[in-house]
Write a structure and sequence with these properties.
With about 525 residues, the protein is of the alpha/beta class. Helices cover about 35% and strands about 20% of the residues. A hairpin with a 2-residue loop joins β3 and β4. It has a nine-stranded mixed sheet with strand order 3-4-5-2-1-8-9-13-14, with helices on both faces. It has a six-stranded parallel sheet with strand order 17-16-15-18-19-20, with helices on both faces. Strands 10-12-11 form a three-stranded antiparallel sheet. The protein has 16 helices and 20 strands.
Length: about 525
Amino acid sequence: MENVQKIPFVDTPGSLLFLTSEISPFMKTGGLGDYSQALPPALLRSMADGGDVRIFCPGFLGAETDPRLTPVGGPLTFETPWGEKTLRVFRAADQKESAGSCPSGPILDFLLVDDLFDRKGLYGEAGQDYPDNFIRYFSWSLAVFVWMGETGFLPDVVHGNDWQTGMFFPLLRLKSIEDSSLSSIRTVFTIHNLAFKGLFPFDLFFLTGFPASWGGFDGLEYYGDLSMIKGGIVFSDYVTTVSPTYRNEVLSEPLGAGLSGALKYRGERFLGVLNGIDDDVWNPLTDPMIEHPFSRTDLSGKEINRHSLIRKGNFSSADAPVIGCVTRMTSQKGIDLLLLALDQWLSGQAKPFSFFLLGTGDPVLEKKALELEAKYRGKVHVVIGFDEGLSHQIYAGSDFFMMPSRYEPCGLAQMYAMRYGTIPLVFPTGGLRDTVSDGVDGLWMSSLSEEGVIDVLDRALDLYQDKKTFFSYRSHSMDKQNGWEERTGEYLRIYAGVLPSAPEIRQGLLMARMALKM
């Protein structure tokens, strides 16, 4: 496992540009939205006085009329390989710049390019990706440079996330050849889930204007396709992913998803930094979405939330332990294994429990979950969809939280559950291994199988009967420090390593520039 502390702490950036395709509560499909909402403010709090953090995100459907947003600047036109586009920018209303000073929080700007982003979905609809996603996110990356130029914002560091921002990095390398002021910018690229590589027909490469040498396997090519995520992997100064264990897992196949070679090539510049959670949002003592507040030292409210969840689930037993699950219903999350294991367990005379599932995803798995509920009504309750308030109530009211993920780059749900004293039951992969300690604050599955799920259920139900040990697990889980304040130092050390004062980075960029001019 790489040690972030090896990176020399040279200096912290005075300014940071954070690029993301999602940010909660405006637009979110998963953990990236929460990450983007929580990390930049935490970074700003950790930076020296006068730090400037800005977030650029694509626009979204309804941005023009959203009362939380204010238009800034006039429409701007710029050229793309697909003709002239118009950029309009909308700023989060409480993040306006005050004259002569930086705002108290990051500046959040939504960059709306023509009609490319005012759509019902972020990346597609009805399970199908938008066919013009390459055009959308390449054009948006160009728009980032337009808005930087219009505002005169030249950040010390740009931090991009996932394939949607991947084209910014080769574009920066290309543009810095013509504009020396851009060569001072240093870059970090974070992979949140390597399964999503941003693959498109390779013919699109010839529209980018990139040198032909960038189109090889050591550039943007991926087994005959063009991969946008490789833009970040190959052309950023540092690559990170969202847990140390996941970082090690993707260095070999199959979890490397065909990119393990490119990641190995980055060597010590590929690092695993564990995600965190927003302790202010996920706080059982102040959470307005749960039935009653509680804390580690006063768990009486936990029991009130538990009984509230039992009523919501129409469970027949108030004494049986409650196992919760808030998830995307996909094979990655192991929901197919979970449903089979639950059916096998509940069909026998095994120890009782109540199971509350909230999720959406694969229609086949949704149907199977509803069939399981119908078969075991009073023991299983299923809600198809996403409900933020209900998710908080499940975390607060459950005794255990189930996560049988086949792979999990980091995972946030287990950290939310632990914050609320709900003991996670996980398969120890990726961030689940890094955040859940077997036999201390959670339980690990013995194998990734139906039998593994049954085994951990059996252990959990035995634990529930041993109240002294059960409450010890609960106490340890609530003691776990998973807030972003614990993570920002690692990111600042990485940023410090890519500031201009790091001579090896400067020399590398100079050599790349000279090679392109040859």
